[in-house]
Design goal:
alpha/beta; 6 helices; three-stranded antiparallel beta sheet; 15% strand; 188 residues; globular
Length: 188
Amino acid sequence: MIIIESKRKKIENILKKYSEAIIADVTSNAKDGLVKLSPFYPHGSIPVPFSEGMTAECVEGIWQGLKVFENEGIDINMFQNSTMRNIKRTVRTHGKVLGHQKGVNNPEILGYVEAKHHIYIPTYKWVLENKVVNIIERLENASKDKTIVLLDYNTCCDVDSPTKPLSHAYLIKAYVEGLYPYGPKLKT
């Protein structure tokens, strides 16, 4: 079983709730190889959706690079950021977010939920299937016998939330367990 918890919670409190659990930090601040599961991790050669021949260093670089603001368009320089720092493009600097451009050369702007489905989720899935296969296999095997708690700063597991950022830890869980958006959508 895989559980998502906030990185901001005290480990002691998480362990009170899940005493036998394996705690796995999957954020960009992880101190072990699990940092490779962070969307900020510079794997390199990640295909940019709807942009034939273009690649990026990290998932977050694609997400931020294709973001369109009222005062600024896309920034393909974000694709080459391999530092795990200075990747966020904010409304404070660039104005209101209008959406995400559907690729580098397509003027179509996708709304937030649509962009999650067509840009973020497929890009992150590509990383899971092409860059961190061994880590995913280990998580899958370990989760059969033990509870794994994935720590993430965002804990939203609602792929279709129009207001909250999606937890990449949830995308790991969904991939390993065959859940939506990688498997059937569960009816609520």
